[in-house]
Amino acid sequence: MNNSHDDHDPEELPAEISVTEVSDEVLRELSDLFGPTKGVQRPPVQSPHGEDPTEDLTEDLMPLDTATPYAAVTDSEFTDAEVISLTPDDSDGYRADVIVIGGDDGYDLTPAPADPLLKPLARGADVVDMSDDSGGTVVIDDQDLDRVVIVDDDRPDPRFDERQRRRERRERLKRVKWLKLGGLIVGLIVFVMGVLASPLFAIRNVGFEGVVYTSPATVEKVTNVLKGASVFTVDTAKAREQLLKDPWVSEVRITTDFPRGALVEIAERVPVVWYLGADQKARVVDARGHVITVLTGWPTKYLQVRGQGPSLEAGAVADDVFRAAAQLVLALPSEIRPKVKALDLTGGGELSMILKGGTVVRFGPPSDLKDKLVAVVVLFRRQDPATLAVVDVSTGEPTIQQR
C-alpha cells in the first residue's frame, strides 16, 4: 500500500476497503505473494499492451492516515478472508499494518522459536550473545545489526598438553641419545689410548746413529726419555730438545720402530777454525759461527784465526768475521788448502790468509770472499806462490809483491 498523504484528505478515507474493489491484476499479484484465497478464483491475466498493471493498485487503494489508530479490511462476499489489524508500536514510532488473506490457507504466523544459540544479555543490554559449539562467542550489536563482534573464547585443546609432553619427551630422548653416543666415543678413545700406552708396546731398544762428539750424558738422558714409553705415545719432541741442547748436535731425527724400538739419528757440527779468547781458551767454531766447544789447550786439527776474540761459552754464536773465516776455509780448493798455515784477523776486522811458505794473501773486509778467492786461485795457477811475498785482493783486482 502507498502511505502518501499528498493526494487524499484523511477525512475522506472510507471506513472499510472491500476486496472486491481491487482490480484483477492486484488480486493476481496478491495471490502470487500470499497464495489463493478460499472461494475466490484466481483472476485471469489481463495486461493490455502499453498499460502498467500496477496503476489500478495506486488508484483503488486509498492511503491510510498515520494518525488513524488502526485500519480494518473487510469483505462481505468472501467469508473465508480474515483481516488482522495491528496497533502501532508507540515505543519506537514504527507502525505496522498487516493484512492476512486466507486464514485457513496453511500460512503459519506463529513466531519462530528462539535460536538456542542466542543468549540475551541482561535487561537493557545493547548486544546479543550467540555461542557456538566450538567455544567461540558471536556478539551482535542491537543498535547496529551490521556489526558482528566475534569473541574468541576457545578453551585449550586437552590434547595439546599431551602432544607437548610427547614432544618434550622426544627432545629429552634425543639429547640423552646424543649424550650416550658422545660418552661412548669418549670411552672408546680412552680405552684405545690406554691400550696404546700400555707396556705391551713399550720401547725396549734405543739406537743412535751419527754420534761422535755428542756428550754421553746427553745420550743417556735421551735414552731414558724414550725407553719404556709406548711407540704410539712417546714424546719424541722432548727427546729432540734434549739433544739440540748439546753444542755438537746440529740436527736430530727420531723414528719409532714398531713394536718396541726407536732410532735416533744425529747430525753433528763440523769444526772448521778456532780462535783464542780473552781467557786464553780456545773456541772451536763451525761454518755457521757456532762455538762448538771450549778447550784449555790449542787444537791442531783445525786452522787458527789469529787475533783475540770474545770469550764465549759452548753453544753461543761468534762474530760474523769468524763465520766468514770458517766459510773461507771450507771454500779453499784442494790445491791450496794444504799450503795454508793460518788465518789472521787484524784489529780493523780485515782478514788475511798466511801460507806455509810465508806468503800473505790479504782479503780485506770479510765481504765478497768468493770472488776474491777465485782471483787468488787463478793467480796461483799462473805463478808459484813461493815467489810471491804479498797478494792483495781486497779491492777485487789482485796485486802482487814479489819476494
Automatic annotation (TrEMBL):
A GO BP annotation: cell division
A Pfam family it matches: FtsQ_DivIB_C
Main location: membrane
Domain POTRA span(s) in chain numbering: 201-269
Highest classification ranks of the organism: unclassified sequences, metagenomes, ecological metagenomes
Organism: freshwater metagenome
TM segment ranges: 178-202
Gene3D superfamilies per record: membrane protein fhac
Segments of this protein annotated with the region Disordered: 30-59
GO cellular component, one term: plasma membrane
Subcellular location: Membrane
Alphabetical list of PANTHER family matching this protein: CELL DIVISION PROTEIN DIVIB, CELL DIVISION PROTEIN FTSQ
Protein name per UniProt: Unannotated protein
Alphabetical UniProt keywords: Cell cycle, Cell division, Cell membrane, Membrane, Transmembrane, Transmembrane helix
